[in-house]
Amino acid sequence: MRFSTDLLDGVLTGAFDHYWSADLIYDGELRLTSVPLTNVRFSEDGNAQVQQTGSCTIVWTDVFGKAMAPRMVSDAFTPFGAQLRVYSNVTAGPFQERVQYGVFEITDVPSAYDEDMLFRGQVVSTGSVIDLELAEQLAGVGEETFDVPSPPSQLASVWDEAAVISGLQIARTIDDQPITRSVMYPDSKLDALYELFDVILDAVPHMAADGVLAARPNAWGSVVHALRRGQGGQIVQVGGSMSAASVYNRVAVRAVSGDQKSILAVAEVNDGPLRVRNADGSRSPYRARTYYQSSEFVTSATQAQNWAASTLGQVSTLRTQLIPVTMTFDPRIERGDVLILERLRGELPVRVRTISRTGRATQEMTVEVAS
What we know:
This protein is mainly β and 371 residues long. It has helices at 6-11, 138-142, 158-166, 189-201, 301-315; strands at residues 17-26, 29-45, 52-60, 82-92, 95-119, 122-136, 203-207, 213-217, 223-227, 235-238, 241-242, 250-257, 260-268, 290-294, 321-328, 338-343, 346-357, 362-369. The chain has a 6-stranded antiparallel barrel with strand order 1-2-3-6-5-4. The protein has a 3-stranded mixed beta sheet with strand order 13-12-14. Strands 7-8 form a two-stranded antiparallel sheet.
């Protein structure tokens, strides 16, 4: 959950307004501050490799009549290394709080133009309108590849290796582990980063709001917030959905050596509707739906079994029921947060999978239900 003061918690359950702004950064240097953002759309998806994306429009009038629409690679607001440090600003009467939302790379400028006029024989700009496409910094890591097959730079620390691969500042939010063996990475640096985190740390990369690389455990964490109904609550509408797509009841860890493949470990759902087989050994109504995975970082049967068991929890019961939730705007909530969802039939622990936000007073989420 993004950081805020305790006062904001009470404000977000009452009457408030909000708007978006950003600071422009290039190569660590602050170029512009408090740039207003309009037509804002931000999305989070905890199952995607690049988990945060967005778009916005900047309507800017320079006090010196300078044109801001980018025309050259070195201009501001170009998709060649420029970043926006985005803030959500919440106001209620005299109260105002700025919540740091995230650091985003400018990935595309689909439209940009200046409104120009002649003033004393010179062309000056009366305003610039710039449309931007944004993505979290993992998108930049995803554009990088290893020039040649490369092993880890060292084996003592996953976190140290993550810093080398990504080039990002890191926050060691979970315990470090040694890298189990020296293997050749896949071509993509982002793929290598995800594999290290998943197999060894049992986690996924997570870009924090301040722009540092953290880790989000695959296992559910502690509850960070409760969504309430009625007066003083944040819930607007709660739906429901259920699908068998991408729901597995069996995970197999493969060992790959040349053309030879063998199974190192298997984890299965043994009871309930998702069971692999019936008590008498016959095929269950849902049958066996196997999710296969492999990694050269797996060096023992015990490690393979632990990985299979962890993955089974993510690809089986957590995927069976997704609940769409419409709630009042709250910039603090982020993908992976564990919440309490209040319903008429009782309270339900859920974990946030996706979020969509705009400039409106509400936001849309999908949450996973604990098994």
